[in-house]
From TrEMBL:
Its main location: membrane. TPR repeats lie at residues 134-167, 372-405, 475-508, 509-542, 645-678. The keyword Heme does not apply. PANTHER family: MITOCHONDRIAL IMPORT RECEPTOR SUBUNIT TOM70. It comes from Janthinobacterium violaceinigrum. SMART domains: TPR. GO terms for cellular component: membrane. InterPro entries: PEP-CTERM_TPR_PrsT, TPR-like_helical_dom_sf, TPR_rpt. This is PEP-CTERM system TPR-repeat protein PrsT. Keywords: Membrane, Repeat, Signal, TPR repeat, Transmembrane, Transmembrane helix. GO terms for molecular function: mitochondrion targeting sequence binding; protein transmembrane transporter activity.
Amino acid sequence: MARSLPRPFPGLPAAALCCTLLLPLLTACHGTQSSESLLADAQQYRQKGEARAAIIQLKNLLQKEPDNAAARLLLGSIYIDTGEALSAEKELRKAKSLGLSAQQVMPLLGKSWLMLGQFDKVLAEVPDDAAQPPVVLALRGDALLALGRRDEARAVFARLLEAHPDQVEALLGLARLAALEQQVPAAQLLLAQALKSAPANLDAMRLQGDLLRLQGKNGPARLAYMQILKIKPDNTQAHIDLANLDITENRYAEAGAQLATARKTAPNSLGLLQAQALLDFRQGKNKAALQALQLVLKAAPDHMPSILLAGAVQLALGSPQLAEAYLQRFLAVYPQHLYAVKMMTSIELMRGKTDAAIALLQPMLAAFPEDVELLSLAGEAHLRARQYDKATAYFEKASTLAPDTARLHAALGISRLGQGENSRAINELERASMLDRSTPQAGTMLVMTLLRNKQNDKALAAVKTMEQQQKGTNPLLLNLKGGVYLALRDLPAARASFEQALGMDPVYLPALNNLAQIDLAEKKPEQARERFERALAKAPKNADLCAALAKLAASQGKTDEARRWLERAHRDNPDAVGPALLLSNFYLKTGAPDKALELARTLQTGHPGDADALALRAQVEYSAGQAQAALDSYNKLAGIQNSSAPLQMRIASLYLALGDHHNALQAVKRAQALDPGLLEARVIEVAMLLNLNRQREALAVARQVQEQQPKLAAGYKLEGDVLMEQKLPQQAVKLYQHAFGISPIGPLQVQLYRALQAAGQARDADAGMAAWLKAHPEDLSTRTYLAGTMLAAKQYRDAIGHFQYIVAKDTSNVVALNDLAWAYQQEKDPRAQATAEQALKLAPDNPSVLDTLGWIVLEQGDVKRATALLRQAAVLAPASPEVLYHLGAALAKSGDKGGARKQLEQLLAANKDFPQRAAAQALLTQL
């Protein structure tokens, strides 16, 4: 029986197999053709629009004659047509090396450089020389235009037109320039002139489509691009332009088909790769988009459209730092590009750099005053800057232009809340909620606002409306409704709502937490624990549930149980930073810093490039008191998060803790460079410069703050601080008064009081302070400062009155109790010891409290107890001259003259100035 032949390609259609078998026969034919015949075939194929066939014939020719310059030139020209710029450049360079003139090669070679984004190379190879052929000199103008050097480009094109009035490339260059400057009518006139001179010029026809797209006339633009394909069916760029047009209209299938057609002709076209990346990006396929862009940028590192798109893709992938690097490169060339500025603004807002975001937006708002997205970004930036009036104005304008956009009305509601216009805010949130019923964000904000305004019944009505709109399928809404019932003090209804939410999602943590709070309020902690454990049984590795159980156990004093839950969360999620952070913090709080350090270091070692793991290690080292190790870790973290101003501030604080003022100051300056609006950095810089006795620099910084933020009090307060350091209190008074006029707050009242006292204006100081405390009786911090100054001035009766007021308001205020006890003792008030005893109960290891009580009981004759208390204070505060003097006096009274003498001699030998120095010397002479 005959055996059937094996099928070499299972599943391959017969026709395809025939074609596969015929290929060697067809490709073998060239061996009998002459070079002239192959070149002629290639030219004919090109004229018929069959680029791939032409390329095959030319490659066959070049196999026979590698040094055929004409073939190289033609092949390079075809590659230009198909958009394969790298291959074009290679062939054209070879053609030039084979002896073809620059006049023959440069128009094409320069165009390949433009396609590759190698604009500087064009400028280097094409000098600004009128003797250059016009088509070559026009390439220089195109390169200047691509680099954003518009005036220079304009000059090149203008000179060309002066010498050659109908030179098409110059007309097209000026038309592109006009389009970039939003002068579309001028661009159209120039284009019409170019088309009159060269009606079949493909670049002119393409620009016609581009101008139509710029005006939003997508239908006519499509016809323009299709006209190119009628003339030249294999024109890759026309297919790419049609695909880009489809992408803007969300016609992704049609765009994919256009790109597939282009791929048959030019599989290595950089424009094709970039368009495919754009299509992937628009469809949410960001990783695929990034891979395509990396191929483009590897071949053409300065390809600006791909650089811009790479920034957008990295932003979508959650990598704002990488996105920023791409966008900065793009904006250096196109500083007014709307889309790029919007993305850069979003990045600045993500980092909390509102001033930088506003600075980016200002010129764009002038150029594009009715761009809704730009207005929305401006509203968001000013909202975050707490400039609610400006935020409201931007959101109002945006919502007028796009009245049916729920997001804008929600944002407008938030900005009105910031202005205190609660009723108008509620109106906007209600409108946002009605416009967007599919998502609950606006409705949730509305309910929360109503609850904040104590409009609980309206809040309940709003949440019920939302529930009807979404047919009760969202546990978030049920949890929100439960919160409203809690506000209404309807615990049964609240519990029912939370339980309904759990019926939809048994591990919905917000509802579980709310039910736990009700259980604890009803003294039923076991019921809360059982509910969490039932949820955990459904999701055994849920770290959040373990953390909730740990929190519940800790609230009941069950430390070991809390530790076991946190250890389980970490064990079940060993690579997650969150559980590790909770457990390490627990170890620190419960006296196990070694375990915390081991945990954090193990996690970071296993994830050496993970910023979160490194941040955890640094934080734990800092909390464990290992300042140098924490500094090393934070510096490594700064190498990864190199745009974080708060991180630099943490580094500065660690340098300060280590006594390295120079590096601390450098870290503060880095923070300022990253965030020029970071006021905290300026404040600390001034303080550090004053500590380093660099008063002139400190004054310059203070005045710089005034220039940058003249409506804030900080700059004037800082200058006042510098003047006080320079012993110029009278001048400082004026600065503090100005700052206080801008921001009347307690700390500024204190600074003004100090300056007035130092300037000899005690009456004005006392009057101002008295008026402040009368108007702000709850400002205990300012009252504490005043009482302390009175104590230091030995105005004991006045100090006692203030300390009594403070203690009545805050019974656990140790500092006030201790100072009150001391003042009582100076006034021989019998309440002194009882008050000091009360302070000791609150702070048994506080050396100041031990010293006060020790001195009081010593003066009352209890020498033994006084000596014991003062010894304990001296151990805790061995550098305090006052404590050491008191201990010396106690030893002398106890009869230990040798011990007293030694104590006092050591104290006086330290040569420190302190209020009791004369008394210590007098006592020493008596021993």
